[in-house]
Each structure stands twice: as C-alpha cells, then as structure tokens.
Amino acid sequence: MTAVPGGKYVDLTLLEQELADAGMTFPNGLTLYETQVFTHDDAGQPQDLPPEADAVIAAHNPPRPPDPAWLVPGAKVMAVP
Amino acid sequence: MPPLNDVLAGSLAQAVQVQQIIDGLKGTPSKGVPISLTALSDTNNYALTVKNNDPTNSRALSVLKADGTTLISADVTGVTLASPLHIPAGSITTTEILDGTIQTADIAVSAVQQRLAFYASTPVFSTSATATWVATPATVTTTTFGNTIRLDFMATLQHNVANAQLLFQVVVDSAVAGTLGQTTFSGTASSPLTISGTTYTAPSPGSHTFAIYVYEVTAGTLSATASVPWTLNVTEQKR
Fold first, then answer.
1. What are the pLDDT digits (tens) for B54-79?
2. Phi-psi region for residue B142, left (φ > 0), alpha (ψ -120 to 50) or beta?
3. Is B137 in the A-facing interface, judged by CB distances under 8 Å?
C-alpha cells in the first residue's frame, strides 16, 4: 500500500485522474484507507500501487473542501463514548 | 489436659476438684480442661446461652485462635468471623445480598453482557472500487467468548454521483457473506447519507475482527463524510 502523509487531504477522484494522466490506470478503482492508498485485484483484494505512483501522490495537493455548513467555526464534533 | 474429675457418690468434694472448675472457667494458664456441653436433650432450652447485659457493647462471645486473634466474636456490632469463611453451598441467595451492593469489579470477565470493543472516530476513507466489498476504517479486533455478538453501527457517507446505490455489511474476519442492507443516495451528488443499524453474529470463542464494509453498486467515488464520526460497537450478550 502507498502511504499518504498523515493529515494530507486526498481527493480520490482527482488523484485517480492525476494517476491516469501519468499513465497509470486502475480499472478496479482506488481506495483511501486512513493514510494508505491502494487498488484492488479482480477478487477485490487490496493491491499495492506501482512505485511510480509515489511521485503523483506526493504532488497531489487538492483544495480542501470547506467544512460543512453545520460545523460552525470553533465547534467540536460530539465525542462518542 | 485432664478432664474434670468426677466426685464419687457419697464422697466429699475435694478442693482440687472444685479448683479444676474454677481454673477451667477463669482460664488459668496450664490448667485448662475441656468442657463439653453435649449431653443435653431438652426440647425447650439451649445447651448454652450467653448474654452480656451491658447495652453499650453487648460483648457476648469471643472465640479465639491460638495466636489470640478472633475466630468468632459476637457483640453489639454483630458477628465477626475469621477468614476464610467456609459457607455451605446454597447458603447465600438473593435474600442475603443487599440490593445494589454487587460492584462491577466483583463480576468475572464474560460473566455478563459487556461491550468488548468499539470504534468511534471520523475516518479518512474513500473508494472508487466498484462492485467489490471494501473494508472501511471502522474496524475493531477483540476476543469473544462464544456468545451472541451484537454489532451496532453508524456511518455517514457520500457519493459523487446522484442516486448512487450502496450496499453495506458488518463483516467478521473479512469474510463477507451477503449484504446487510442496500440504500440509495439522494438526487444531489455528494449529499451525506447516514446508515445505521444492529446485526447479530455468533463467532467461535477467540480473537475476531469486525468491520463495516461497503460495496459501490454505482461507479464513482464513495467517501466518508468529513467531520461526522462513525461508530461500531461490539457487545457480547449473555441472555
């Protein structure tokens, strides 16, 4: 699996396009799982991205979407016990 | 120790015989004699009755161990017994247990229903894998004890395609067995949708992993909605 620096925002749709622009297509799709990005084999099992994907992921820098309208500045999401 | 000496019929009691009783009752060192109140056969009376009329302490009985510590004592505070206490089976039932006095720490692990593990976080998750089951970060691993497991889950997701369809399941040990539910996102792309529910399973005793899985029916990108926590609670039920 390819690591994404912790806290970095990833727009998976955009990343998929950026990887395609770099010549890497993943017909079984991509998955962002916390700080890992991977693709899937035909059976759905996670598969590592090729090493060339590292540079694309490093350069990936999409604008972070705004917080949801309901999340007023300074408010905290309710903790779940 | 010599037993109490009998006074023969027709003979005068000797001082030594009377002193034996005095020593026995006073507890004179090295002069003890066994006293056995075991011959009474009386419907109405106790073989031994002791009472201390002092109302303050009512110290009625003290039975000591050789080292002087208490085996049994009875006074105004109640009856005190030495440890360990050997109580016949079945002697203590709900009647003897004061309501509300059993503490959590008194209950053995797996003796009662308990939450074994939980996930409560805002996951970073997104997938474009269509028509395949994908594990989400809502994953916990815990040891179960062979009873029914209740899985309570909640997750909020969005899809970048309007009216996209989604299947979901809470999966044990990565073995997806059918779907638990299916839902359709709204007609507005990327509108959040919360799925929640309860399901049951009964894995064998041991370590197991429980996880929320999703399955994109509609091609596109499925994502965990930002700032909305997901939960997955694993509870082992007993009755």
1. 999 999 999 999 999 999 999 999 99
2. beta
3. yes
- Provide the token pair at B187: 């007609």
The answer, as to whether pTM is greater than 0.90, is: no
Task: Please give the biggest Cα pair distance in chain B.
Answer: 119
Point out the residue among A31, A68, A78 whose CB comes nearest to the CB of B129.
A31
Contact A12 B134 (CB under 8 A): no
Can you read off the two tokens belonging to residue B198?
Answer: 């309860």
ipTM of predicted complex: 0.82
Instruction: Say which of B134, B220, B229 has its CB closest to residue A31.
Output: B134
- Alpha-carbon distance A41 to A55, whole Å? 22
Which residues on chain B are in Cβ contact (under 8 Å) with A36? none
Helix or strand or coil: residue B235?
strand
Q: What is the DSSP letter of A68?
A: P
Cβ contact, residue pair A28, B132, below 8 Å: yes
Eight-class DSSP state of B25 = H
